[in-house]
């Protein structure tokens, strides 16, 4: 079947119910999308599916083939997407494992809402778990991009 990932069309050889995550990682060698829980709960495998943050661990590749997929590798050619730059400015990652998923959720939020409120930030990011507890820095980075004041130092 044909799969469109990061603006490029691929012919993939996979069973229709194979989770998109494994096609991305094993067949297309796009390793930035991480396996976390495998149950669409932790958010480590978040990609954009037609612009919507979507868990690649539970999306059958046959369903993914109906739309456009963007992975962390597709946000920018050189890691200079504004969200990635803000992540650097705020030293967001700790171990880093969850961060591709966090960035994909944050970039989708900012694409649909350039000035999210704190409640909107928290709502949009609530499905992305960080075992290192980087949440205050994630919120600060998103606020930075939204041009809003930080509520105290983080
Ligand atoms: Fe370690 Fe989020 S930075 S799990």
From TrEMBL:
A family per Pfam: Fer2
Keyword Metal-binding: yes
Matches recorded under InterPro entries: 2Fe-2S-bd, 2Fe-2S-bd_dom_sf, 2Fe-2S_ferredoxin-like_sf, 2Fe-2S_ferredoxin-type, 2Fe2S_fd_BS, Beta-grasp_dom_sf, Diverse_Oxidoreductases
Coiled-coil features, chain-numbered ranges: none
Organism superkingdom: Bacteria
Domain 2Fe-2S ferredoxin-type, residue spans: 1-75
SUPFAM superfamilies given in the database record: 2Fe-2S ferredoxin-like, CO dehydrogenase ISP C-domain like
Keywords assigned: 2Fe-2S, Iron, Iron-sulfur, Metal-binding, Oxidoreductase
UniProt xrefs under CDD domains: fer2 (cd00207)
GO terms for MF: 2 iron, 2 sulfur cluster binding; metal ion binding; oxidoreductase activity
PANTHER family: BLR6218 PROTEIN, OXIDOREDUCTASE WITH IRON-SULFUR SUBUNIT
Protein name: (2Fe-2S)-binding protein
């Amino acid at each position: 079947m044909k799969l469109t990932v990061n603006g490029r069309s691929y012919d993939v050889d996979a069973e229709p119910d194979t989770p998109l995550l494994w096609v991305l990682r094993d067949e297309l060698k796009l390793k930035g999308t991480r396996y976390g829980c495998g149950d669409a709960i932790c958010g480590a495998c978040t990609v954009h599916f037609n612009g919507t943050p979507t868990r690649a661990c539970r999306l059958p590749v046959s369903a993914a083939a109906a739309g456009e997929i963007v992975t962390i590798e597709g946000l920018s050619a050189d890691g200079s997407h504004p969200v990635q730059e803000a992540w650097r400015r705020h030293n967001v990652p700790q171990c880093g494992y969850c961060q591709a998923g966090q960035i994909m959720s944050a970039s989708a939020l900012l694409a649909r809402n350039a000035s999210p409120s704190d409640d909107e930030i928290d709502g949009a990011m609530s499905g992305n778990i960080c075992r290192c507890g980087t949440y205050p820095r994630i919120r600060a980075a998103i606020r930075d991009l939204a041009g809003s004041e930080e509520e105290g130092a983080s």
